[in-house]
Amino acid sequence: MDEDANIIERAGRGDEDAFESLVYAYHDRLMGLLMRTARDPLLAQELAQQTWIKVWKNLPRFKGRSSFFTWLYSIATRTALDHFRKVKRRNEYEYMDELEASGSSGRRSQPDQTMMRAEIQQEFYQAMDQLPEKLRMVLILREVEGLSYKEISQIVKCREGTVMSRLYNARKQMQQLLKGSQS
Q1: Residue 104 to residues 38, 44, 108, 148: CA-CA distances in angstroms?
Q2: Which domains, and CATH codes, for the chain?
Q3: Are 170 and 138 in contact (CB under 8 A)?
Q4: In the chain, is it the N or the C terminus that has fewer CB atoms within a 10 Å radius of its CB?
Q5: Tens of pLDDT along 85-132?
Q6: Count of CB atoms within 10 A of residue 123's CB?
């Protein structure tokens, strides 16, 4: 039994130190996914906490049919999707506005470039916001997280062909949306 499997087994039996090791090992990657999904640090942190609670409760049922990382992302993805289904999404640009208001852009010597990057990023996020959640999640998992089709299919609980189809549709819609914003 490798070290990760040993830690997962101990955590599944209620060993809080082992669970803390899992949180330490995977929390940054989990937060990366949730930040890209929620684009709000407080919401991402809240979703991460909900995810870790679900992991703690369900860890005894983890059978190892997929990697722990894939299982964790599956729970995080469903937690985020559930949140967005239950609550109308808040203004996604609050975070960007806060950053701009605090002056934390970092490159004040090139204001034109900074402004252009912010405009491009805003157009990208506006286009992402218009995608259905299922398409947006697949796009993030593939293009940002770099997960394989197989891993994504396990996370979103659908066939690999469905993942490929959703990814194709997400890319196509993003192209159309971004092309429309340049007009």
Answers
A1: 20, 20, 9, 34
A2: 3-86 (1.10.1740.10), 131-181 (1.10.10.10)
A3: yes
A4: C
A5: 676 444 444 444 555 555 554 444 466 667 777 777 777 777 877 888
A6: 15
Decide if 138 contacts 37 (C-beta within 8 A). Answer: no
Residue-wise pLDDT tens digits, 29-42: 999 889 888 878 89
And the tokens for 56?
């703690």
The token pair that represents 116 in the structure block: 């252009």
HEC sequence for the chain? CCHHHHHHHHHHCCCHHHHHHHHHHHHHHHHHHHHHHHCCHHHHHHHHHHHHHHHHHHHHHCCCCCCHHHHHHHHHHHHHHHHHHHCCCCCCCHHHHHHHHHCCCCCCCCHHHHHHHHHHHHHHHHHHHHCCHHHHHHHHHHHHCCCCHHHHHHHHCCCHHHHHHHHHHHHHHHHHHHHHHCC
pLDDT attached to residue 148:
87
